[in-house]
Inverse folding.
């Protein structure tokens, strides 16, 4: 049967042919030309419609009654038919997007009242068919969390993957079938690639599955605000008067947002890095108030450093200041963090390069010197935190408990 219209896609050999059927309906055929030959990938018939929907206890086929090309190379096929024995009108809308021999099929199904055009309830499962034409083919499968398989026809492979939505995607000798809820029919992708061996067909399927898995992990713009909005909110919080307190003439220290009476420097606050980020924003916006606050926060971070020359931890940084008098770690102890000192040294040295204040450079160099002294002969740190007497804090690892059990056993064997 000759096609009424043939839709091509950008940078693609795959084409969709719309074939006239009886009673102002149309069939669908997906072809892939190769030289003088044309491979038919999928083809619908009156006995094998494109889709079916369960409504009011009956199953009704959805056959395209209209087709058109939309913007950006998309094709739209619509199906409208009355539901026999009811006052409902079943409406189906298929959007077909394609590029580089990669097609995406996405359905929307609804039941409307014939009299008022209002949406009706009662839609059951939706079934989407991609029937195979006569011929030999092999089904290629691969272990993956996402439903998908390949249809190898000797010289090419068609990989079919459920890229989004819910449903059960299956394949047999008759074709591909997706059974899904009518509220979310899902998004089916069909990719065509040359494959002369079964190994090449399996590789094409794995590439399609991996690409679909990567796209499923991406955050949509609707659920994640733009980075510019996040930057504006963060800058507004840091520039608020209640975000920091004065400590001297030219110093500001950050308040703890959830623990009253505490001022924070490390353990997630990282005041020196916050000052650098605020200065970077000043370079983007040109707001002198942000530049001034960045300098004051950098000077305030210097207040948390140990400057006693007789201390074994000269150059290290405290994490928290309680009641403006007592320096301690986040848990109220007297331990010092390697990460806090490293981040402070990096941020302050960077701020010194832009402000030229000697106190920033001197503080950063003292922190770097403390870090170097804590390295062992192999260039590693004995722990992430250190007590005031210089001993490293043992990490709560399972090896510690195992060592405690193994020591008595070794003593018994020695005895």
């Amino acid at each position: 049967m000759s096609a009424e219209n043939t839709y091509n896609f950008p940078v693609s050999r795959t084409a969709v042919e719309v074939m006239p059927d009886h009673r102002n309906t149309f069939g669908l055929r997906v072809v892939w030309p190769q030289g003088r030959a044309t491979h038919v990938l999928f083809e619908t018939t009156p006995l094998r419609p494109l889709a079916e929907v369960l409504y009011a206890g009956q199953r009704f086929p959805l056959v395209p009654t209209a087709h058109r090309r939309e913007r950006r190379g998309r094709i739209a096929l619509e199906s409208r038919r009355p539901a026999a024995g009811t006052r409902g009108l079943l409406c189906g809308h298929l959007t077909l997007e394609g590029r580089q021999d990669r097609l995406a099929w996405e359905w929307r199904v609804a039941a409307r009242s014939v009299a008022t055009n209002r949406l009706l309830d009662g839609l059951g499962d939706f079934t989407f068919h991609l029937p195979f034409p006569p011929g030999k083919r092999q089904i290629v499968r691969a272990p993956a969390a996402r439903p998908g398989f390949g249809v190898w026809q000797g010289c090419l492979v068609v990989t079919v993957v459920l890229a989004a939505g819910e449903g059960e995607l299956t394949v047999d000798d008759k074709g591909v079938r997706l059974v899904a809820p009518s509220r979310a029919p899902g998004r089916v992708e069909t990719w065509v690639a040359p494959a002369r061996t079964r190994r090449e067909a399996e590789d094409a399927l794995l590439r399609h599955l991996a690409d679909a898995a990567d796209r499923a992990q991406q955050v949509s713009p609707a659920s994640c605000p733009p980075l510019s909005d996040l930057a504006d909110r963060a800058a507004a919080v840091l520039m608020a008067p209640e975000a920091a307190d004065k400590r001297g003439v030219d110093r500001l220290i950050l308040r703890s947002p959830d623990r009253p009476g505490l001022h924070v420097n490390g353990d997630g606050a990282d005041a020196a890095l916050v000052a650098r980020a605020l200065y970077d924003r000043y370079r983007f916006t040109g707001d002198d108030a942000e530049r001034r606050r960045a300098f004051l926060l950098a000077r305030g971070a210097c207040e948390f450093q140990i400057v006693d020359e007789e201390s074994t931890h000269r150059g290290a940084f405290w994490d928290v200041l309680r009641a403006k008098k007592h320096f301690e770690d986040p848990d109220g102890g007297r331990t010092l963090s390697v990460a806090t000192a490293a981040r402070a040294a990096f941020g302050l040295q960077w701020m010194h390069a832009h402000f030229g204040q000697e106190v920033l450079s001197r503080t950063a160099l003292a922190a770097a010197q403390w870090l170097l002294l804590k390295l062992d002969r192999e260039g590693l740190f004995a722990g992430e935190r250190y007590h005031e007497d210089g001993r490293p804090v043992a990490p709560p690892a399972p090896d510690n408990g195992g060592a405690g059990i193994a020591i008595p056993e070794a003593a018994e064997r020695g005895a």
